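Re: guanosine-5'-monophosphate structure - here you go.
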Amino acid sequence: MDCIFCKIIEGSIPSTKVFESENVIAFKDIQPAAPVHILIIPKKHIPTMNDVAEEDGPVIAELFAAAREIAKQQGIAESGYRLINNVNSDGGQVVYHLHIHLLGGEKLGALVG
Ligand code: 5GP
Ligand code: ZN
């Protein structure tokens, strides 16, 4: 399959991994938008949040559990961070393998509110 993130999972494209479990991996974004910018992805190829099925519930929960653990590991759990999921073109999605951006390490500008 022609998916950059599936290639990262199988190891044919290198990445700086910061977390790995049975169903989830996380690695540093190649073009960081903040001092900490990590992508958290399911090992299962799910293109977008729109494609999440009922049976994927547990793996979605695992993505958020991984985010909490990585935030602690990176030392930003208390100072704070932001989780973002871009969906399709208007949402700014470029890679069509579900991922959550974990951003932090500085005061982030307000997006909403
Ligand atoms: P999206 O816009 O789809 O939500 O975010 C895709 C993200 O993947 C971007 O922040 C981009 O910098 C990152 N990215 C794209 N290609 C690669 C790659 O080959 N390696 C890594 N580590 N990140 C990538
Ligand atoms: Zn994929």
